[in-house]
Amino acid sequence: MLHILFDCPNVQNFREELKSCFSPSDTVAVVAFSFYDDYVFDEKSWDRVYGAPDGKDYLETVQSFSAFGIPKESITFINYFKDTKDSAAEKIRRASVVYFTGGLPDRMMDRIREFALEDVLLSHRGTVIGYSAGAVIQLAEYHLSPDADYPAFGYYRGLPYLEGFALEVHYEGKACQKDSIRRVLAEKHLPVYVLHTACGGLIAKDGQIRRVGHVDLLTPDMTPAQIDHFFEKECNPT
C-alpha cells in the first residue's frame, strides 16, 4: 500500500514529487468525517463544506486531484448525514484512493467507528492519502500538541496502517510543540517527523519513508543538546 501524509490540502503544489502516485483512472473516496460538531451538524451545513459545486472542501479536494488528471466525476464524498454503513463501505471498496480530510482526528475516528468502517478501510489495498487530521490518523497511535482545539497534550488511537514513527503536523516552532516532540521522543522512543506548516509531507510504501518538502526528522538517540540545537537552528536559520 501507498500512504501519503501531508500537512495541508494543497498537494498539487508537489505535483512533480507525487505524479507517480496517481493515475487519471483513479477513483477517490473522500472520508469527510473530521468536521467540527458546531460547524457541520445537518445536511445543509455538510453541503456548505463538502457538497458540490460550491463546498469549500469539495472545491479544495477536486482541485488537488485534478492536478493529477483525476476528474471530479471520479471523486465521491462519504456523507455522514446521507450515507448508510453499507453505502459508505461500498464507496471505499470501489475506490482506488481513500482520502481523509483535515479537521478533528479524534472525531473522525469516532465517526469511522460509528459507521463500522475500520475493517473495510484496513482492507483497502490502494492509496491512502490525508492531510493534517487525515495524516495523523494513518498511525496506529498519534499525538496532538496543545492548540486551540486540544488544550492538553494527548495520545490517541488511529487506524493501524503505519507504526514505528510519530508525526508533528503544523510545526511553527511553538514552545508547546517543542515540548511535545521532546515528550514523544522520551516516552515512545520513536523518530518524529516534523511537518512544517503548509510545506510538505511523507510518502510511505513498503516500510520506506520519503520526505517531500520541508520536513525534519528527530530521533530518540539524539541527545538533549542536539535536540535543543535543532530547535535553535530552526528559529534562527542561517
SS class: alpha/beta
Order of helices and strands: EHEHHEHEHHEHEEEHEEH
Mean pLDDT: 95
The parts where pLDDT drops under 50 for at least 5 residues are none
Query: What is the CATH architecture descriptor?
Result: 3-Layer(aba) Sandwich
> What is the terminal-to-terminal distance?
39 Å
Which overall shape is indicated by the principal axes computed on the Cα atoms? globular
Instruction: Report strand %.
Output: 25-35%
Q: What integer value in Å does the Rg equal?
A: 18 Å
CATH class: Alpha Beta
Name the CATH homologous superfamily.
Class I glutamine amidotransferase (GATase) domain
Helix content: 25-40%
Number of strands: 10
CATH topology assignment: Rossmann fold
DSSP helical segment count: 9
When the domains are counted, the total is 1
- Main sheet, how many strands, which sense, barrel? 8 strands, mixed
Describe the structure.
By secondary structure, the protein is of the alpha/beta class. The protein has nine helices and ten strands. It has a single domain (2-235), classed as Rossmann fold (3-Layer(aba) Sandwich). It has helices spanning 15-18, 43-50, 56-66, 85-94, 105-114, 118-123, 133-136, 175-188, 224-235; strands at 2-6, 28-31, 75-78, 97-100, 127-131, 141-144, 154-157, 166-171, 192-205, 208-218. A hairpin with a 2-residue loop joins strand 9 (192-205) and strand 10. The protein is globular, with a radius of gyration of 18 Å.
